[in-house]
């Protein structure tokens, strides 16, 4: 069982993992370098543990100790109990869910390894908004996508905001980073995937016309909010696809577009 320790000093070095959580640039550098990420809220903490991530510590307000008792009893990690006002001083925001955990990262798998048994994957280019990353992972998990591949400049799926928006779905879908972009798309194609680039361009075929759910192996590629896929990424794709729009709307938010396209890619897929 983890030791329960009451802390009343915001400068206590044992709380280092939880400091300055609202400083996005600092946390983006610190967390991968220090091999940690922050899980926020009871459900997310539980899902991280169930996915096999090791716990470094927990930060709880007193009323959450009983709620998380079973997690505490299964872990050897320390549990720091602090007042809500003190938690706000440490983290930089009001921790209204009352429960945080510092979890240890794992090495990312090789893209080829992630793709070996996959049939339906999503490839993201330059999606650097953590909310969009979280929403895409949640839809990917819910709609049966097998894996996610990230370009080198995509946001971190394990950043606190991404994990929170995904409701822990980032732990359910295997993912990897492609090192050289877009050259490494050839790795995807060499493994038998048809790369479909999602774009609002009128020259693209509609998803219904393309019928990706009938293809053997599909890699659906999406770009960043606003800018969409780069010309290099579009050139590397096998086919351009689009979601038909009505009422003069030119495109959807990337998170919404991803959900629509994932359904088109996986509809009618045999359950495994």
TrEMBL record:
GO molecular function, one term: methyltransferase activity
Domain of life assignment: Bacteria
Transmembrane intervals: none
Gene Ontology biological process terms in this record: methylation
InterPro entries, alphabetized: Alpha/beta_knot_MTases, Ribosomal_eL30-like_sf, rRNA_Methyltransferase, SpoU_MeTrfase, tRNA_m1G_MTases_N
Signal sequence, start to end: none
Keywords associated with the record: Methyltransferase, Transferase
Name of the protein: RNA methyltransferase
High-level lineage: Bacteria, Bacillati, Actinomycetota, Actinomycetes, Kitasatosporales
């Amino acid at each position: 069982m983890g030791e329960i320790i009451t802390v009343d000093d915001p400068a206590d070095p044992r709380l280092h993992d939880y400091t300055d959580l609202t400083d996005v640039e600092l946390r983006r550098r610190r967390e991968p370098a220090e091999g940690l990420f922050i899980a926020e809220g009871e459900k997310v903490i539980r899902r991280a543990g169930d996915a096999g991530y090791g716990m470094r510590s927990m930060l709880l307000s007193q009323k959450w100790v009983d709620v998380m008792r079973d997690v505490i009893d299964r872990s050897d990690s320390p549990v720091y109990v602090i007042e809500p006002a003190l938690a706000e001083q440490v983290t930089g925001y009001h921790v209204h869910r009352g429960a945080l955990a510092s979890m240890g990262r794992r090495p990312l798998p090789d893209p080829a390894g992630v793709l070996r048994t996959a049939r339906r994957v999503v490839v993201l280019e330059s999606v650097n908004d953590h909310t969009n990353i979280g929403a895409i992972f949640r839809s990917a998990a819910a709609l049966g996508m097998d894996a996610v591949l990230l370009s080198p400049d995509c946001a971190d799926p394990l950043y606190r905001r991404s994990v929170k928006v995904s409701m822990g779905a980032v732990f359910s879908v295997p993912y990897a980073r492609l090192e050289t972009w877009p050259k490494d798309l050839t790795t995807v194609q060499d493994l038998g995937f048809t790369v479909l680039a999602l774009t609002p361009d009128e020259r693209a075929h509609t998803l219904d016309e393309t019928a990706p759910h009938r293809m053997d192996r599909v890699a659906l590629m999406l770009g960043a909010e606003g800018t969409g896929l780069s010309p290099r990424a579009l050139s590397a794709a096998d086919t351009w696809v689009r979601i038909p729009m009505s009422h003069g709307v030119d495109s959807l938010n990337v998170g919404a577009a991803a959900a629509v396209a994932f359904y088109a890619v996986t509809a009618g897929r045999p359950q495994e």
